[in-house]
Amino acid sequence: MNSDDGGYVHRPGGSDAAGVDDDPEAPAGSAAGDASGPAADGFGSRGWVLVGVLAACTVVIPGIIYVRPGILSAVGIPYIASLLVLPLVPAAALGIVAVWAMTAATHDGG
After folding, report:
1. Angle formed by the axes of helices 44-55 and 79-109, nearest 10°
2. What's the domain count of the chain?
3. Burial class (CB in 10 A: 0-12, 13-18, 19+), 91
4. Residue 45 sits in which domain range?
5. What pLDDT tens digit does each residue of the chain (110 aa) get?
6. Is 23 within the bounds of a domain?
7. Quick one: residue 68, left, alpha or beta (phi over 0 = left, psi -120 to 50 = alpha)?
């Protein structure tokens, strides 16, 4: 389909709405000069919490497993079971925080 046949042609950065300037620097879906919207507030606090949990899950728990793999043996959990349990802790934390961040973002955004 080309632009000569009268069909829909998507032009990135362009706008079909009346009264909206075609400013390529403006965030998508906003009028020129309007700073509100998802692009204006960036990551937000939920995003940084998710990044912090991701960093902890990729650095802290593997570090504990590397440095002190038998750490749970002090409470009676065998070595083999601790190698199964320790990775489950960050996986559950990351899953819970990811669901929290997405559900809170979708409720705030729309």
Report:
1. 170
2. 1
3. exposed
4. 41-110
5. 555 667 777 788 766 554 445 555 555 554 444 444 444 456 788 888 888 899 888 898 788 878 887 788 888 888 888 888 888 888 899 999 989 888 876 776 55
6. no
7. beta
Say what the alpha-carbon torsion angle 36, 40, 43, 46 is, to the nearest 10 degrees: -20
pTM of the model: 0.51
DSSP state of 53: H
Q: Which sign, positive or negative, has the C-alpha torsion 81, 83, 89, 95? A: negative
Neighbour-count burial of 15, counting CB atoms closer than 10 A to its CB (0-12 exposed, 13-18 middle, 19+ buried): middle
Indicate whether 7 belongs to any domain. no
Is the residue at 48 inside a domain? yes
Angle 17-22-26 (CA atoms, 0-180°, nearest 5)? 105
